[in-house]
Design goal:
Aldehyde Ferredoxin Oxidoreductase,  A, domain 1, 6-stranded mixed beta sheet, 24 helices
Length: about 625
């Protein structure tokens, strides 16, 4: 198989140490593409096999040998000229944080380098009895001992492995957080690019897999070169002319959203007790660019270059040659914790990269702990005397490293906010299905609330980013405070996003490109006849099969909901003062969404699955 694919999947059994190569199935690829879609298909095959053997899906231990970890690229990854094609997708059959399916995505160069090494995907089974790393160079894969790497942080691991190879390689690895099975540990590649959400790094740690080194001289082929160059030229021009991808992101990075969302009255503050803060500009992308930016940085094949190379040159939070923080990290480590100190936020963000932690869940867990402290549930004895009041820079930085090593209060933070809040007996975890929600308050942006509730992996904005039309006005402006019509927007965004994550490509392209653009690009690369409708149908198929899997874990309509606070506590200040998510209106949105999806009680019907060709 060729034309956008390398045609090979590396299957690694860490229990036995065996390495096998299987072919990419073209029929499966036509229906699911690669990345997220092909991974979900493979998970379904594993579940059916487990059920034949008598193991129910609910019995799968996220840290057990039966859990599966998949690294996936798609027909866009590593294609020179395909807009922003430097990403890969990581999935795990069961997340340790949520108990749902685990899913994460990262940029940098590791995804393309995996294809250059000769493989589209890596499927990891079992668990090693000792630390190992996986080496994949020019089509040859080997497992190597990693005893000397175990215990090292991300930066030291990456540097050690890069020195070990004369070839041009990229390293994806875990830090101490993954080794210590922190429920939201991340996988980092190229030091600062993170597959952050749902604890995929902890699953990697449970398998004693420290790192994957990839590199080589293979290159994916394009079926219709001339058609591709024309489609790519048009797409890149749209990206250049778009106000978000052509101006906002290149100039200020993702943190350009801090002021935008704050002025919309939807930037959560102090664990979502508020959604507006008058000093938010102090931690904005504009302030970051003015005071701490060294240069812009781009992932492989990217024309946007939204990443920020930053430094704090002096003081208590000195950091050199760092990257970020991104919008979500600034919010979670800053506004959500009440820490309006960009230097402390940057230091905490740097530590998350160094130790291998998801910044969204990390900041949200600390914010949750601060509210538990504020309300007397967590005490000075729990914090070992550190003041965990909102706004404490010391608590923020202290909490990060303690979490990675599960020391002191870190042993509670490492569980995630949902389990921690339950342990201390107060319902203040701002999460859906156990996954901490990101930086958009549904009391001020109604559609994103429906997306959070129905997202298969839990509280996730990039499953269906309705903030784009609701706040930014792309592809058209809609009222963020109305409920009408949001179900259709959520479904379309979720389907399209599932396809982009199966392509695998950067979601920022969707600010400028639509299904027709992706249809033209994918048709030219693969040689298949793919229409705009096919693009959305592929995503719908992926989303429905993913939902079938989480239904096996027991998730249904009752779990497609939002935290109590959003229904019961009106916003006290700001442009959206007095707003709540009205429960009756939310339920109407959800029922309309289910009807559009062809679901009953949060479960796809047999008719819908048959329509999508899912057996």
């Amino acid at each position: 198989m060729e034309n956008g694919f390398m045609g090979s999947i590396l299957k690694v059994d860490l229990s036995s140490g065996s390495l096998d190569v299987i072919d990419v199935d073209e029929d499966v690829a036509r229906k699911f593409l690669g990345g997220k879609g092909y991974s979900v298909y493979l998970f379904w095959q594993y579940l059916k096999e487990y059920e034949k053997e008598g193991m129910a899906a609910r019995d799968i231990d996220p840290f057990g040998e039966e859990n599966i970890l998949i690294f996936g690229t798609g027909p866009a990854t590593g294609i020179s000229g395909f807009p922003e094609s430097g990403r890969y997708h990581v999935m795990t059959l069961r997340s340790p944080l949520t108990g749902s399916i685990g899913s994460a995505n990262s940029g940098g160069k590791w995804g393309p380098y995996l294809k250059f090494a000769g493989f589209d995907m890596i499927v990891v089974e079992g668990a090693s009895s000792e630390p190992v790393y996986l080496e994949i160079i020019d089509g040859v894969a080997e497992l190597r001992k990693a005893n000397d790497l175990w215990g090292k942080n991300v930066f030291d691991t990456t540097a050690t492995l890069e020195r070990r190879y004369e070839e041009k390689v990229s390293v994806a690895c875990i830090g101490p957080a993954g080794e210590n099975l922190v429920n939201y540990a991340a996988i980092l590649n190229d030091n600062h690019r993170a597959a952050g959400r749902t604890g995929v790094g902890a699953v990697m740690g449970s398998k004693m897999l420290k790192a994957i080194v990839a590199g080589g001289n293979f290159r994916p082929e394009i079926a219709k070169e001339e058609e591709f160059r024309e489609a790519a030229k048009k797409a890149l021009e749209k990206i250049k002319q778009n106000p978000v991808t052509g101006e906002g992101l290149p100039n200020y990075g993702t943190a350009v959203l801090v002021n935008v969302i704050n002025e919309s009255g939807a930037l959560p503050y102090k664990n979502w007790q508020y959604a507006y803060h008058e000093k938010a500009n102090d931690i904005s992308g504009e302030t970051l660019a003015e005071k701490y930016l060294d240069r812009n940085h781009a992932c492989w094949g990217c024309s946007i270059a939204c990443a920020r190379a930053t430094s704090i040159k002096s003081g208590a939070f000195q950091v050199k040659d760092s990257e970020g923080p991104e919008y979500e990290s600034i919010w979670s480590l800053g506004n959500d914790t009440g820490v309006i100190d960009l230097e402390a936020i940057t230091k905490a963000n740097h530590l998350c990269d160094e130790l291998g932690l998801d910044t969204i869940s990390m900041g949200a867990a600390i914010a949750c702990a601060m509210e538990l402290y504020e309300k007397g549930r967590i005490t000075d004895e729990d914090t070992q005397g550190i003041d965990y009041s909102f706004g404490s820079s010391a608590a923020l930085v202290d909490g990060v490293w303690r979490t990675a090593y599960r020391i002191g209060i870190g042993k509670y933070l490492a569980l995630g906010s949902k389990r921690m809040a339950e342990m201390f007996g107060l319902d203040v975890s701002m999460s859906v299905k156990g996954l901490e929600m990101p930086a958009y308050d549904p009391r001020g942006i109604k559609g994103i609330g429906l997306n959070y509730a129905t997202a298969n992996r839990g509280g996730c904005h990039v499953t269906g980013y309705t903030v784009s039309p609701e706040v930014i006005g792309l592809p058209e402006k809609i009222d963020p405070l109305t409920y009408e019509g949001k179900a259709q927007w959520v479904k379309v965004f979720q389907d399209f996003t599932s396809t982009v994550n199966s392509t695998v490509n950067c979601l920022f392209t969707t600010f400028a490109l639509g299904a027709d653009d992706y249809a033209a690009l994918l048709s030219a690369v693969t040689g298949w006849d793919i229409s705009a409708n096919d693009v959305l149908t592929i995503g719908e198929r992926v989303y429905n099969l993913e939902r079938v899997i989480i239904n096996r874990y027991g998730f249904e309509a009752k779990d497609d909901t939002l935290p109590r606070r959003l229904f019961e506590e009106p916003l006290p200040t700001g442009p959206t003062k007095g707003e709540v998510v009205k429960r009756d209106e939310f339920e109407k949105m959800k029922e309309e969404y289910y009807k559009l999806r062809g679901w009953v009680n949060g479960t796809p019907t047999e008719e819908k699955l048959k329509e999508l060709g899912i057996s």
